[in-house]
Amino acid sequence: MDMLGVDVHRPADLRLVGPALAAWVGAACAETVVPSEVVLWLAGTLVCVVVLLTVLLLRCQQVWRPVAAGLACLACLAAGVLSAGIPARARTHGPLAGLGGARASATVDGEVTGDPRISHGGNSELVIIPVRVRQLTVGGSSIRLRQPVLVLATAPGWEGLLPSQRIRTSGNLAPPRSGDTVAAVIFVRAPPVTVGEPSAMQRAAGHLRQGLRDAASGLPGARRGLLPGLVIGDTSNLDDEVREDFRTAGMSHLVAVSGANCAIIIAAATLVVRRSRLGPRLQAAWVALALFGFVVLARPSPSVLRAGVMGLIGVVAAGSGRPRVAIPALSATILLLVLADPDLARSVGFTLSVLATAGLVVLAPGWREALARRMPRWLAETLAVAAAAHVACSPILVAVGGGVSLLAVPANMVADVAVAPATILGVLATMAALVCDPLARLLATVAGLPCGWLITVAHVAARAPGAQIGWPGGPLGALALLAVTIVVLGAIRRRHGRRVLAAVCAGALGTQLVIMMRFAVSWPPSG
């Protein structure tokens, strides 16, 4: 065991890490730069050649391990290019792309693929709905296809649509923004014509989500919008000031469906079934059923399914303390999800979820053991989890927004005590809304108390002097922060380095206290 508590005699199983990263890189590159037909043919040929070589190598009694690893990475890289490149080329070279460039008028029949979002701009509201077009009609001619578009509607009736609902509408096509994963944008000024009902699962999810919104409608102020965001990622009514406070304080992950939400549900279900007399397999089945129910509640979109898988891996890793098992599971999950849904390869949410889970799997166990020698174990657990997630995610947060939060770790530690109660009470309020509205409102009222604590923590942390330091944004800023993080983690492993870091942290803390004391003395401002 080293000073971080990692078992150096049993190294983690990293065999799937390379193939998973290769597939991710291939899909991301194909999404960013649409490959030509020649590149796609080469990728397909490479996959076939690697499969053939693998079959031949299996007949050998001994295979040089680096050769096998290299072949696996090449095959997954090519598979990632194919999985993302084929649909990307269809989007950019299909009939929708051409008609969008010509800004033609068309009638589309399609299926809603996500929740409508309302954008407030000027004197009107714009409803944004992702739709997969099944039939396109232009000038009396119809074309059957399966391409994603983004509907921008100003007419009423769009905000109540549910995923999987079939609609028909007419409007003006336009090309998408650079980087969007849709074939075209369609501007609509008329209400939708529904030609099919949503699936039973989506109807159930919509009814449950509306029940939670109704139960939370009686909460005061910003709590009304925070509770649905905290429980199911519904931020449609979240106050803009609260949203910004959460971002500055490094707590924005709390208002998005993530592995943490699923981990709370799994942990609560596990705690309940452990008191029963069911066997291990039945207990596991009930926990899986609880997770499935939450996925239905939060909408079974690819991002929610990803969060469910990541949450399950995180709980297994935290409970077993076995990175040797957790890392292959995480790598396999990344590989399957990226190949099944290549759009995730460029998703910031997916990247943050993977990094947070990797931090929980790789960094948190060793940090927890090291800290537990100097403080209570429950405090070591909380600090290790918060620090590992923050360290793992900070480079990506810097790349997309710039700035490094100095209070993210303590803010999340203080907020952590309220997250689980608010989430569980919110889920119970959602279930209660099906049978007893007063009970649902009572549970939502109780859940509003931890929500108020979260709002207070975010407000104080976001406004504390020096809460966030300036840092270059973009890829260069992310690489610079990653380099600094590696240096700091390397210094922690040496006694002299720990002393230097402790002195630096003490100096920074003293400076921060002086700044805060001067700020407090000068408050309120004169004039």
How does this model look, in words?
The protein is α+β, with helices and mostly antiparallel strands and 527 residues long. It is built from 17 helices and nine strands. The strands form two sheets. It has a five-stranded mixed β-barrel. The protein has a two-stranded antiparallel ribbon with strand order 8-9. Helix 2 packs antiparallel against helix 3. The protein is globular and about 75 Å long.
- The chain-level mean pLDDT equals 79
Secondary-structure-based class equals alpha+beta
Assess the beta-strand content as a share of residues: 5-15%
Major sheet: 5 strands, mixed, barrel
- What is the distance, rounded to the nearest whole angstrom, between the alpha carbons of the first and last residues? 61 Å
Count of DSSP-assigned helices: 17
Helix content: 55-70%
Poorly predicted runs of 5 or more residues:
1-9, 515-527
Strand order of the largest sheet: 1-3-4-6-5
Give the radius of gyration. Answer: 25 Å
Number of strands: 9
